[in-house]
Amino acid sequence: MSIDAASGSDSGSFSVIQMFQITDGRLYMTGSHRGRWPFPELRAKVIGLQEQFNIDAIVIEKASSGHCQRKNNYLPKRKFGI
Length: 82
Description:
Oligomer: single chain
Order of helices and strands: EEEHEH
Number of domains: 1
Structural class: alpha+beta
Number of helices: 2
Number of strands: 4
Largest sheet: 4 strands, mixed
Strand content: 25-35%
Helix content: 25-40%
């Protein structure tokens, strides 16, 4: 799952959540959600999708509310050698 978190204002950018799957060494995007969610709603959406699709890894852009989600331990953290 990747998250590009925007500020959440009605006039600002959209937040985008994308889900991916690796099959036979290829990366496929399996879903995408886009919206202007305030931080609590974005967090709830990410957690719900994580549980629904059994997500193994989450990549969060280190900017705006995406950084806030990681910094405040709202989502699990794992470092990858990417």
